[in-house]
Amino acid sequence: MSSEVLQLDGVSRTYGAGATAVAALRNVNLTIHAGEFVAVMGPSGSGKSSLLTLAGGLDRATGGEVFVEGTPLGGLSINELARLRRRAVGYVFQDFNLVPTLTAAENVALPRELDGIPARKARRQANDALRLVGIEDLADRFMDQMSGGQQQRVAIARAIVGNRRLILADEPTGALDSATGDGILEVLRGRTEAGAAVVLVTHEARHAGWADRVVFLKDGRIVDEAASQHDPSVLLTGRAH
Ligand SMILES: Nc1ncnc2c1ncn2[C@@H]1O[C@H](COP(=O)(O)OP(=O)(O)OP(=O)(O)O)[C@@H](O)[C@H]1O
Questions:
Q1: Measuring from atom 25 of ligand 1, which residue has the nearest CA?
Q2: What is the ipTM of this complex?
Q3: Which end of the chain is more exposed for a tag (fewer CB within 10 A), N or C?
Q4: Which CATH number is associated with domain 4-236?
Q5: What are phi and psi of 218, to 5 degrees?
């Protein structure tokens, strides 16, 4: 099997039409392999979230093609896309998107159960994922009994459950203190060592320093790429743009 987990081939996304059309992404080419951790940076409105939602099949490109593990998403029906997402893609949303009436373990098990995995097995996988993010002892808590940092870990557990190969995280450390944020990045880094490809949208150079590669977006285009070598200082020198 090819090690290309995500490929964007000339991808564009224009919102709206006519005089009010907004070109959020313009002819973006990007390939991410298994085991790679890529950070996406850029000013507000440069297209970072658009890139992530297209990569995760949550939205469709208006030009070009997105491939996840070699499958072109453009030709998939809505149901096929949903199945591919549940099987291969873990998405960490800025605002968590957790179900308040479910416990931590139930939230994490939900995508597995929707995919037809028997409840006991889904629950076992959920406990494994909660262990990986360091909160297995909170498995039976409801969301309003957890801090923001703990809820964020649940959201990450839900994204990594069942060994998904593509993990997409939109500012996952946004509301967290720096020690908790570093813990989250460590978990994401750990998934790449397990063979996943991770794409992290971040505003913080320090966090991008965890990545193998940093992609800079501006006005919907990739304007620069840098190897990071997990050394945040690399990003603080000579990278003005
Ligand atoms: N659903 C939408 N409808 C219309 N325009 C949109 C929509 N989503 C995004 N845009 C526009 O597309 C451009 C890129 O937005 P996007 O959210 O991808 O940028 P971003 O880099 O993630 O920004 P931020 O850092 O502020 O989250 C912006 O001009 C934005 O206003």
A1: 44
A2: 0.96
A3: N
A4: 3.40.50.300
A5: -150, 130
